[in-house]
Amino acid sequence: MSMVIAAVAVGLGALTIVLLLIRQSRRRAAGHGRVNSKVSTAQPKNARMSGWRIAKAIPGLGEDYRANSAVDRVLTTKLEHHARARAARTRDTSRDSIEQQRVEKSLPGIETRFRALLDAAPVMIWMSDTTRLCTFFNKPWLDFTGRTLEQEMGNGWSEGVHPDDFERCLNVYVSSFDARKNFTMEYRLRRRDGAYRWLRDTGVPQTDADGTFLGFVGSCVDITDLRQAEEKFRSAFEFLPVAILMLDQRGRIALVNEQTERLFGYRRNELIGQPATMLVSQLMTSSSSSPRPEALTTGAARDLLARRADGTEFPVEAKLNMVRFEEDVSVLATIVDRTDRIELHRHRQELAHLARLSTMGGLAASFAHELNQPLTAILSNTQAAQRLVEADPVDLDEVCEILKDIVEDNARASEVIRGIRALVKKGVPEFASHDPAVVICDVVRLLRSDAIQRGIRVSIDVNGAPVKVYGDKVQLEQVMLNLLLNAFEAMDGCVSNDRRVTVLVTHEGPQTVRVAVRDHGTGLSGDQLAMIFKPFVTSKPNGLGLGLSISRGIVETHGGRLWAENNTDQGATFYFTLPIVDTA
């Protein structure tokens, strides 16, 4: 029992210490001086005395109190630690109070600088609170609308939204606000001059350091010019006479024009989101190891096969080009139906073949004469050899010479026949590298008899090193044949001394060879120069008027051009150019 009473006495002493500390803390909180940084660790005298007096007042407890002094010391140590901790917290509170006062004094300046920064921003900025009502608009916004801040506050800003956009705009704002999610929307807002301009408005929810929602802040940019440019692009995109597909980075169709629907037989909604390869299977195929569509965007045309909705295949020319829209990268595919072009090319080949047949028919007499010479020589030499063989003794050396002549004459005849056959045959063009000088010499040899009969001298002048051009030899020979025959016919009425044709081969720069066929005829009138290359225009009684037109088409197909000029002295010159190919 005495031990319990002693413990109670010690407890009362400790309670006295606590009460004193609380009283001291209240006095300091009320402004009675600040907490000293050095806290005394000595036990308060009155507290120690209070415990002793209580023990002494109860008979027989004095010695027990001393015996329990260890408990008193433990409690006293804990109370001293509590006092030091409380003093430290008081110091921190004092510092926080001073810092808070400093921050509160600087807040007006910070807010002023913050508003100045927002007003200097190149975009229109707004802010709203937790009630969805707008509480701030920066100077660019107010300058744009021509209204005051008071007029725009709350929901006042919505008065300038275009009526057709108002409901959609409000729904996006409210739903995003309630969900505390970012949003981007486009709407028309009335400018100070009354014109409506398209804005792109981006809103972001704002929270404090504790995550408490504070409202939204948003920024707007005028995108009217961008939308107008997009509208022009869409108009051009929609009404171009070729099929156009906009593809995403996975090669899937994002946009098509009306011509695509007509060409492939699909409705637009059937194509969106589908792989472009459903229309052109090889469209996304290249030698590149990269599977991305932009790896194919070389802009070069490729001849491919496409498939319509009904399963029929048809030839197309396809090009891929990369297009950037802000941060997005898309691929623009243009697809042209080559069916008509191929058919037109086939008709041109047919026409060129008929023109060659017509030309060769007109040269039948000359060709017959050209063949007669080697055939007659072969016959004569064969008869002579026969007589020599029948003689006794046989002159073998003479027979050998005659046989050599027969072989040469046979080669001449074969060359004429081969040239005629090449020009009259009907077949697919065979493109290869050719020396233009060799092609010209072959045609001149073929026309040798015709030139002799007309009394015309033909000379060939090749300047510069030999070069190669890429083309179909038969078509190139047809061009030279037409130009030489035109030159021959242009001198039909000239005196014999002036009947000469010069073929000049020169370099026109490092990548082009130029061929000139010059005659000494009567020249060309202004009307003839303007019309000479048009089809079915001719000055000949029995001419078709196709030779020069076909020749120009052939030259242009080979990457060159064909034109005519009058000479300064007499006659005219026809020129054509061809690109030189690198054979290294």
From TrEMBL:
UniProt xrefs under Pfam families: HATPase_c, HisKA, PAS_3, PAS_9
Biological source species: Paraburkholderia panacisoli
Disordered: annotated span: 82-102
Enzyme class name: transferase
Keywords, in A-Z order: Kinase, Phosphoprotein, Transferase
NCBIfam families: sensory_box
InterPro entries membership: HATPase_C_sf, HATPase_dom, His_kinase_dom, HisK_dim/P_dom, HisK_dim/P_sf, PAC, PAS, PAS-assoc_C
Reactions accelerated catalytically: ATP + protein L-histidine = ADP + protein N-phospho-L-histidine
Top-level taxon: Bacteria
Molecular function via GO: phosphorelay sensor kinase activity
EC number: 2.7.13.3
Gene3D superfamilies in alphabetical order: 1.10.287.130, Histidine kinase-like ATPase, C-terminal domain, PAS domain
This protein's record includes keyword Cell division: no
Protein's UniProt keywords contain RNA-binding: no
Residue intervals of the PAS domain: 110-165, 229-274
Record's protein name: histidine kinase
